[in-house]
Amino acid sequence: MIQLPEKASCPTMYFVGVTTGSSSIMKVFPAWARELGLDAVIKGIDMPIHAPAQEYRRVVEFMRDDPLSLGALVTTHKIDMYSAAADLFDYLDPYAQRFGEMSSISKRDGKLCAHAKDPISSGLALDSFVPKDHWLKTGAQACVLGAGGSALSISAYLGSEERHGADVPARIHLDNRSAPRLAEAVRVLEYLNVPMSYHLCKTPELNDRIVEALPAGSLVVNATGLGKDRPGSPITDSCRFPENAIVWELNYRGSLEFLHQAQAQREARQLTIEDGWTYFIHGWTQVIAEVFHIDITGERLAACDRIAREMR
Question: What angle in degrees, to the nearest 10, is found between the helix axes of 25-36 and 298-311?
Fold first, then answer.
């Protein structure tokens, strides 16, 4: 049984994760709070991966019943939290319902609310490093390694013809080692018109084959959690990235094996490499805005970005 925090004595936001104490947000949040004029603190709630359903319910019930516990950002546990505790919420936003996950817990007008912010924050991050008209000009594809909440959100954003018109990948590949989760991805993403390929890859060697077959300029994303919550990489050291590929490691802390594999090939394969830092900024500011009912765009967002980078 996990140790819940004591009842909050001041406005409090929580970070529900696995190893929250080592996250940069624990140092960054107080500085952001000062910048944003928030009289609030942040506390971590660490839970083992795939904790029992009752534990997720205990966490949600604690926040619901404690007046000064205003909400939380949820990472790693987004899908499990939704599966175990969705019925405890008064409002589930459309993204949460579509993707079966929650990354944001907040309260508004006496109602307990859950939002899935990944489709927004992942899109903001992608737009910062994927050039405009990249897919139209290159005919490249995308390969998302993993089928968790972040992976589905990224796939949905990349494949949104409504948002991007014809500037979408020629094909999106989704690789995962779990058949049930892959089947769920097929169900969730069936509305996309972009060609999709789903691959059951139980070993890194099978992921290697998909990545190496991608055309030049393709996007390869590590959305597995490997290299952060658990050591390792979804590909082997011998995997060759496509030439001129864009490689995105969603993590910014941890052992980061996938990132190091890409860095070893940066010059030879002319890779563009991104870690998860920009995603971290957008992910947190989106949820903080929801929890505290404030706008964090424009100059405020720029200030938060500057503060975080100075403290990195």
Answer: 140
How far is it, in rounded angstroms, from Cα 28 to Cα 30? 6
Same CATH topology for 12-116+278-311 and 120-275? yes
Q: Which residues contact 116 (CB under 8 A, 6 or more apart)?
A: 78, 93, 95, 96, 98, 99, 101, 102, 103, 104, 149, 153
**pTM to 2 decimals?**
0.88
CATH 2.40.40.20 fits 120-275, yes or no: no
Q: 63-105 pLDDT, tens per residue?
A: 999 999 999 999 999 999 999 999 999 999 999 999 999 999 9
12-39 pLDDT, tens per residue? 999 999 999 989 999 999 999 999 999 9
Protein fold of 12-116+278-311: Rossmann fold (3.40.50)
